[in-house]
Amino acid sequence: MIILYTSNTGHTKEYAMMLRDALDLPAYALADAPAQVKGADAIYLGWIMAGSLVGYQRAAKDYRLLCVIGVGMTPESKEQTETIAAKVKAPENVPVFYLQGGYDKKKLSGINKAIMNVVEKTIMKRLENLPEEEKKQNPVYKMITEGYSVVSEKHLEPVLQWYREKG
Ligand SMILES: Cc1cc2nc3c(=O)[nH]c(=O)nc-3n(C[C@H](O)[C@H](O)[C@H](O)COP(=O)(O)O)c2cc1C
């Protein structure tokens, strides 16, 4: 089994590297994976762009995906996981996980930056009314106002549990 990932600003790659170290599996960026691993069993991690899991279609075409992981800035929730799962339409027996990553506008350019200029405003409108103290603690608020990441190994625990139990 191998790990494949697509990352724009590094957060998904960080999760992929943590998973590589925890499971002792080879990891490759989907775009740079060597030809000889084509068709291999794989865990796929991709960043979420406007509700879509970037790279999923290509990964699903070229590899036998056993597990799919989306990384976005939205907090982890059952709803967010279900939304991603519904979008990718992975086969029933392929688990789909969602992990909160990070966001830093300084790392964006071009169309991604332009999209987020608009999206940020919508998100900030929702967060603006929070009490000042709560705002300062809110990871998404911090992501937008100063650049912030919540990437940590503890978020990977459900994935590690799936791996241990998959038999
Ligand atoms: C153009 C664009 C669209 C995004 N859309 C979403 C989204 O729909 N849902 C979400 O949770 N995060 C969204 N994000 C945030 C990224 O998914 C988040 O920053 C993620 O950690 C990026 O991973 P990376 O650092 O590996 O590229 C978006 C970011 C960009 C730049």
For the structure shown, list the relevant keywords.
single chain; 167 residues; alpha/beta; Rossmann fold; 2 domains; 6-stranded mixed β-sheet; two-stranded antiparallel ribbon; 8 strands; 43% helix; globular; binds flavin mononucleotide
Level of helix content? 40-55%
What kind of sheet is the major sheet?
A: 6 strands, mixed
Enumerate the spans where pLDDT stays under 50 for 5 or more consecutive residues.
Answer: none
Distance between the terminal alpha carbons, to the nearest Å?
Answer: 13 Å
Count up the domains: 2
- The global form is globular
Order of helices and strands: EHEEEHEHEEHHHEH
CATH H level, superfamily name of the largest domain? Flavodoxin domain
Give the gist of this structure.
The chain is of the alpha/beta class. The chain has helices at 11-23, 56-62, 78-88, 110-127, 132-137, 139-146, 157-165; strands spanning 2-6, 27-29, 41-49, 52-53, 64-72, 96-100, 102-103, 148-149. The chain starts with a strand and ends with a helix.
